[in-house]
TrEMBL record:
Ranges where the PPIase cyclophilin-type domain occurs: 88-230
Key words, A-Z: Isomerase, Membrane, Transmembrane, Transmembrane helix
Gene3D superfamilies: Cyclophilin-like
Chain segments annotated as transmembrane: 21-43
InterPro entries recorded: Cyclophilin-like_dom_sf, Cyclophilin-type_PPIase_dom
UniProt protein name: Peptidyl-prolyl cis-trans isomerase CYP21-4
Entry's Gene Ontology molecular function annotations: isomerase activity
Amino acid sequence: MARIKPQTLLQQSKKKKGPSRISVATTVIYGLIVAGMVLFIFATCRYWSRRSEVHMEDALSAVEHDNAFGKTKKVDIPRYAVISTSKGSITVEIYKEGSPEVVEEFVDSCSKGRFKGMFFNRVIKNFVIQGGDDDSAGTTEDWTLRGKHYGQLDTSLKHEAFMLGTSKTKHDGGRFDLLITTAPIPDLNEKVNVFGRVIKGEDVVQEIEEVDTDDHYRPKTPIAIIEVTLKQKV
C-alpha cells in the first residue's frame, strides 16, 4: 500500500476546512430583497410626510376661509343708513351688536330695495312715526290704546326719543316696518326691536310728526320713503 506524504495530507485538510462559496443567484436574490425593503421604507416615509403636508394645507385653508368670511361679514354690515323721504333725509346709526339678526334683515331689505316707495302709514304725535306696507294698526295703535287706558305713560320705563326699530311681529313676505320714536316710550323693548338711533335729521322726523292724520293716525297727505342707503361713513 502506497504511503501518503504528510504535505499531501495537510493540503487536503485545508481544502476541506475552507469556506464554501455563495452562488451568484443567491447574492442577486439577497440584493433584491434589501433593495425592496429600502424602497418600501422610503415610500412609506414619503407617504406619511405628504399626508401631513396635505392636512396642514387643509387646516391653513380653513383658517384663511374663516378669517375671510369674518372680514366679509364685518364689511357687509354698515354703520349708518340714510332714509330719504319726501320731507327730507334722516341719518341713523345702526347698532350692530344689539339685534344682529334684525340688523341683517334690515340690511338685506335695503339691498333689495324693499323700502323704495314705502309710506309712513302711522303718525302719532309725541309717540312714533311708522313706515311699512302693512295697513293694520299693529304696534303703534296698541301703544296708544294702552296709554289712553292708563291715563298717562309710565315714564319710569322710558326710552329716549329718535330711536329706530321694527316691530317684533313676524315679518311675512319680506315685510319690514320702520319705527322712529318721537318721545320717550314706555316698555319699548316689549314691542320693538331697537337697532339704531337718529343722529341727523331730527327736524325731518318732527316735521313728519306734525302732519294731519285721520282717526286711525294715517297721514292725510302721503309721506313716502324714496330709498334707504347704507353707508360706512357719514
